[in-house]
Amino acid sequence: MRKVDPMCELTIAIPMYNGGHTVVQAIQSCIDEAEHFGIRILVVDNASTDGSKERIQKVFGARVDIIRHSSTLPIWSNHNSCLALSTSKYTVILHADDMLQPKAVERFMKTISMDEHQDNTIIWGRSTFYDYAYHLKREGVSLDKLFFGATAERVFSFGGLTSSGTLYPREFIVAGGFLEFDSAYMPSDLFSMILAAKRGFQFVMLKDKILSRYR
Description:
Elements: E1 10-16, H1 23-37, E2 40-45, H2 52-60, E3 65-68, H3 75-85, E4 90-93, E5 98-100, H4 104-112, E6 121-127, H5 133-138, E7 147-148, H6 149-157, E8 166-169, H7 170-174, H8 188-198, E9 202-213
Parallel strand pairs: 1-2, 1-4, 2-3, 6-9
Antiparallel strand pairs: 4-8, 5-9, 6-8, 7-9
């Protein structure tokens, strides 16, 4: 099986800590489409102790790149590592206990090819466990349509955007990425998106189901 060029347009990055019981399903959910589109799959192992890395290597071999931290980082620091270690123009973060829906990669690729979606667009879709569309509807924002500025700030003030199943342009990590907190309970996804809106990023939520939670 060929090794995907790390300089490809899009990378799926999976932050993982002791995810051996779910990460194989996460990878499998996107590997066929990823190989079809020439997309890199990158697992960032946050110093797991359950043999997750070895299991991935046994099942997928060279089809998946694995980078391992020598010590465990706070969750949002590891998310930033995923973005920083990706050499692609765009990176989709996928948590190790989530799965991409069929055709999710195809939908992302189609969306980023549209002229209106510039290098500062953050894109995500609906999920089977939390439908963020509720917050957009409250502010009169349509799905599949760009929103930004004060409108985006109001949308994100109602709740944090799950980082899993979301596509980030390279410019997001260049601008600082996620705000880093030692505690996983601090809503960096909320504060970071409000800050991104203030920095001029634009957003679009797809009508399609993109993400599902394992079990």
